Amino acid sequence: MSETRNQYADDPKQGFIALVADLAAISGPDGLTLLEIRDRLDERAFGLMILILAIPCLVPALYGVPQIVGIPILILAVQMLAGRVEPWLPDAVLQRRVSKAWLERMADFATKRMGWFERLSRPRLTVFAEGWAERAAAFFMILATLTIVLPMTNTVPSVALTLLSVGLIQRDGLFVAAGAAVATGWAMALAAVGIGFFVGAGWAVSLITRFGG
Question: Transmembrane residues, as ranges (predicted)?
């Protein structure tokens, strides 16, 4: 096992965009399994796996994909919250194959649309990106993922996941804090809409009952 992980040792100096592009480049005609992707990500596996899963969900008003990738993101985030060092996923999930076409689309999106994430992120405020802060970031990842699976609401929580993931990968506490703020704000906004709808619907029903009879 150690030989396999050494063979695919992650270069910490390599940016996450180049790493995503490399995954697409090395994939065969059938793509890569999540097991192969996890092993190639090595020490940055948690942050990078969540980032790779979140990238497709950045597309506005997407339906279907967020509901699928939300499950492994939740599994990974819960493990981070529990303090696990290495990602674990069920064998059935690890054997799921990511197609070469999907990997290429992710690499293309990352290269064209996410350059500013990599350019602006750097090690700073590391107290918010290491140790206890990783568990706090995991909590906000869970919060974002619980809203990402709702139909047509995927983009904003995906931005939160991206900021949190990049923050952990780059040890950038500012990005982690920004991701936590986006996740919290979005959850509060959805809660406010839900409460408003419930209260409004209840008020309408009572009004109809009062004047309709």
Answer: 45-63, 173-205
The pTM for the full model equals: 0.75
What CA–CA distance (Å, rounded) separates 33 from 35? 5
Q: What is the mean pLDDT of residues 129-158?
A: 85
- The answer to whether the beta carbons of residues 152 and 190 sit under 8 Å apart is no
CA distances from 36 to 1, 39, 136, 171 (A): 13, 5, 28, 25
Q: Give the CA diameter of the chain.
A: 78
Q: pLDDT tens digit string along 59-75? A: 765 555 666 778 888 88
The single-letter code of the amino acid at 54 is A
Partner residues linked to 97 by β-bridges: 33
Both tokens assigned to 191: 């809660």
Give the residue from 88, 89, 172 showing the smallest Cα distance to 137: 172
